[in-house]
From TrEMBL:
This is Alanine dehydrogenase. Gene3D superfamilies: NAD(P)-binding Rossmann-like Domain (3.40.50.720). Residues 1-67 form the Alanine dehydrogenase/pyridine nucleotide transhydrogenase NAD(H)-binding domain. It comes from the Bacteria. The lineage of its organism: Bacteria, Bacillati, Bacillota, Bacilli, Bacillales.
Amino acid sequence: SDLVIGAVLIPGAKAPKLVTEEMIQSMEPGSVVVDIAIDQGGIFETTDRITTHDNPTYEKHGVVHYAVANMPGAVPRTSTLALTNVTVPYAVQIANKGYKAACLGNTALLKGINTLEGYVTFEAVAEAHGVEYKGAKELLEAETVSC
């Protein structure tokens, strides 16, 4: 391939290395790999560094590697407007209902809780850090949750 874009996201976990160094070596010189998953460790075995917007590429085995972390930072105004447009409705729900009712009534908000009442509520993160996991829904439905 002339261009390979790696965009794997496993919430709460590192990205798996899906493209081997041998695969990269078999690519034509001048080919490009874009590692969008670099914020989670990257999917290419040859992505050995994070690059910047000022110095976005490096070459390895004749293949150009683009591994800029926080890619939306290249277009801050546009990315801020996009993020605002998708988050304001959630903020309005929380403001109108309180966080507990809003999260219990909206699966997306519920999935957005990472810690609550001293527990990690994201199982993959708890496992990765060797800490106790408790589900957010279970904690929210318990009467001990302080609002």
